[in-house]
Amino acid sequence: MAAEQFQALRNYLDSQVLGQPAFTECLLIALLADGHLLVEGPPGLAKTRAVNALAKGIEGDFHRIQFTPDLLPADLTGTDIYRPETGEFVFQPGPVFHHIILADEINRAPAKVQSALLEAMAERQVTVGQKTYPLPKLFMVLATQNPLEQEGTYPLPEAQLDRFLMHLNLSYPNADVERDILRLTRGEELQGQATMPQPLRQEDIFQARREVLSIYMDDAVENYLVQLIVATRQPEFYDPNVARWLSYGASPRATIALDRCARARAWLQQRDFVTPDDIHAVYANVLRHRIILSYQAEADGMNADHVLAQLLQLVPAP
Fold first, then answer.
1. Which residue in 62, 84, 202, 298 has the fewest CB atoms around it within 10 Å?
2. pLDDT, tens digit, for every residue of 256-279?
3. How far is CA 228 from CA 201, 223, 255, 282, 285, in A?
4. For the stretch 138-177, what's the b/e string if a residue is b when 16 or more beta carbons lie within 10 angstroms of its beta carbon?
5. With contact defined as beta carbons under 8 Å apart, do 307 and 293 qualify?
6. Angle between helices 2-16 and 202-213 (to 10 degrees)
7. Structural domains in the chain?
């Protein structure tokens, strides 16, 4: 039952975000793996639209936060408000107390605001004063970054980037998809935007998450998954050239994320077991923001995707 409802949600997302099936699949994988997404791409690639569509397809509250340099941590988490009629302070929850949060242009906010959001993502709670307030059980942050502008931005530190389950890079659509986008937007102006007939219930999401965790993974596949992570820390065992490009490898949090994402993809493919192809499909998205390249890699014109592609070729698959 949950699989059919997720398929209906996937069809709805694909009808609203044209030409980006990998993006919509990653949205569902993050939902199933109980993680957060960092999406990077030029303006106008439907990043905000995709999150809006996901929110409309799920039973829950949605809030968009536009990050700006003058934003304060309390603008996210909330603050204690003094009530003169009672002489007491009452906590006023901030926008982070919603089920789905769109953190638009997260790198435009200063470090204190970024830390407040990332702490909520990691701990699933907010502390104001001497009290701690739990966040909703269904809590998902989708943050966006614009790679074209660097003035007035505050890049996220590597340790904080590690809190995101996946980091996606979006690119421009081809000409055929561009025509379909034109027709879709014209149709929406005339008839209104399509809606999900029956939003996915939170109980069904939690049930699907339990099913994902029970997906079978063979010992050989599990060992392969671990070796792919270890290869980022000890690349000299595979290729000295790759070792020159890596300063720091991925943490055990990456192993957990890769496992959850591979299982979620297998579940979406309606299989009850994980294959190496599932690991390959999510490998770059899970590790792109978790490895730190050396100056030699930059000098050689190598980026994280190139290095990860090399590791996939070097580590033997079962």
1. 84
2. 999 999 999 999 999 989 999 999
3. 35, 9, 9, 12, 14
4. bbbbbbbbbeeeeeebbebeeebbbbbbbbbbbeebeeee
5. yes
6. 110
7. 2-191 (3.40.50.300), 215-314 (1.10.8.80)
- What's at 93, amino acid-wise? P
Tokens 């302070």 -> residue: 89
From 286, 32, 294, select the one nearest 140 (Cα to Cα): 32
CA distance 10 to 191: 22
CA atoms of 160 and 306, how far apart (whole Å): 23
Residues in the chain: 318
Which residues is 248 bridged to in the sheet?
292
CA angle 105, 44, 166 (to 5 degrees): 50
- N-term to C-term CA, the chain: 32
Q: Which of 224, 199, 238, 234 is nearest to 276 (CA)?
A: 224
Give pLDDT, residue 92.
87
In sequence order, which residues have a C-beta less than 8 Å from that of residue 307 and are 6 or more positions away? 242, 245, 246, 291, 293, 297
- CA distances to 31, 34, 176, 198, 267 from 210, rounded to whole Å, are 12, 11, 39, 22, 11
What is residue 72's three-state secondary structure? coil
How many Cβ atoms sit within 10 Å of the Cβ of residue 195?
Answer: 12
Residue with the larger pLDDT of the pair 69 and 225: 225
Cα separation, 186 vs 173, whole angstroms: 18
**What pLDDT, in 10s, does the model give residues 144-154?**
887 766 655 67
Report yes or no: 166 and 40 within 8 Å, Cβ to Cβ. no
Handedness of CA 88, 99, 206, 127 (dihedral sign): negative
